[in-house]
Design a protein that fits this description.
The chain is mainly alpha-helical. It is 73% helix and 0% strand. The protein is built from three helices and no strands. The chain has helices at residues 5-34, 44-63, 67-74. Helix 1 (5-34) packs across helix 2 (44-63). The mean pLDDT is 85.
Length: 79
Protein backbone atom coordinates (compact mmCIF):
# COMPACT_ATOMS: atom_id res chain seq x y z
CA UNK A 1 0.00 0.00 0.00
CA UNK A 2 1.44 3.34 -1.06
CA UNK A 3 1.18 6.35 1.18
CA UNK A 4 1.19 9.59 -0.75
CA UNK A 5 3.48 12.48 0.15
CA UNK A 6 0.75 14.62 1.68
CA UNK A 7 -0.21 11.76 4.02
CA UNK A 8 3.43 11.33 5.08
CA UNK A 9 3.72 15.06 5.67
CA UNK A 10 0.56 15.00 7.77
CA UNK A 11 1.87 12.05 9.80
CA UNK A 12 5.18 13.80 10.49
CA UNK A 13 3.42 17.01 11.52
CA UNK A 14 1.04 15.16 13.82
CA UNK A 15 3.91 13.19 15.36
CA UNK A 16 5.80 16.42 16.01
CA UNK A 17 2.74 18.01 17.61
CA UNK A 18 2.27 14.97 19.83
CA UNK A 19 5.92 15.00 20.93
CA UNK A 20 5.84 18.73 21.64
CA UNK A 21 2.65 18.28 23.66
CA UNK A 22 4.15 15.41 25.68
CA UNK A 23 7.31 17.39 26.44
CA UNK A 24 5.21 20.40 27.45
CA UNK A 25 3.15 18.24 29.80
CA UNK A 26 6.33 16.84 31.39
CA UNK A 27 7.78 20.34 31.82
CA UNK A 28 4.50 21.54 33.34
CA UNK A 29 4.51 18.62 35.80
CA UNK A 30 8.05 19.52 36.81
CA UNK A 31 7.16 23.19 37.35
CA UNK A 32 4.14 22.23 39.42
CA UNK A 33 6.25 19.86 41.53
CA UNK A 34 8.92 22.54 42.05
CA UNK A 35 6.19 24.84 43.35
CA UNK A 36 5.29 22.15 45.95
CA UNK A 37 1.83 21.79 44.44
CA UNK A 38 -0.17 18.91 43.05
CA UNK A 39 -1.97 18.94 39.68
CA UNK A 40 -5.20 18.44 41.63
CA UNK A 41 -4.66 21.89 43.16
CA UNK A 42 -5.36 23.48 39.77
CA UNK A 43 -8.49 23.69 37.67
CA UNK A 44 -8.49 22.08 34.23
CA UNK A 45 -8.34 25.54 32.66
CA UNK A 46 -5.29 26.46 34.73
CA UNK A 47 -3.53 23.21 33.85
CA UNK A 48 -4.27 23.75 30.17
CA UNK A 49 -2.91 27.30 30.38
CA UNK A 50 0.30 26.04 32.01
CA UNK A 51 0.77 23.36 29.36
CA UNK A 52 -0.06 25.83 26.55
CA UNK A 53 2.59 28.19 27.89
CA UNK A 54 5.14 25.38 27.89
CA UNK A 55 4.12 24.38 24.35
CA UNK A 56 4.56 27.95 23.14
CA UNK A 57 7.98 28.13 24.78
CA UNK A 58 9.07 24.86 23.18
CA UNK A 59 7.77 25.92 19.76
CA UNK A 60 9.65 29.19 20.02
CA UNK A 61 12.88 27.37 20.85
CA UNK A 62 12.36 24.80 18.10
CA UNK A 63 11.58 27.46 15.49
CA UNK A 64 15.11 28.83 15.83
CA UNK A 65 16.76 25.44 15.19
CA UNK A 66 17.92 24.12 11.82
CA UNK A 67 15.76 21.33 10.38
CA UNK A 68 18.14 18.45 11.16
CA UNK A 69 18.60 19.60 14.74
CA UNK A 70 14.84 19.91 15.09
CA UNK A 71 14.31 16.36 13.85
CA UNK A 72 17.00 15.08 16.21
CA UNK A 73 15.47 16.86 19.20
CA UNK A 74 12.05 15.44 18.38
CA UNK A 75 13.53 11.96 17.98
CA UNK A 76 12.89 11.44 14.28
CA UNK A 77 15.27 9.33 12.26
CA UNK A 78 16.62 11.18 9.24
CA UNK A 79 14.57 9.95 6.31
Amino acid sequence: MKINISQKKYNVIESARYMIRERAINKARAKIALANKQPEDFSLEDLEAIVKGEEDELKQKLASMPLYALLAVLGFAIL
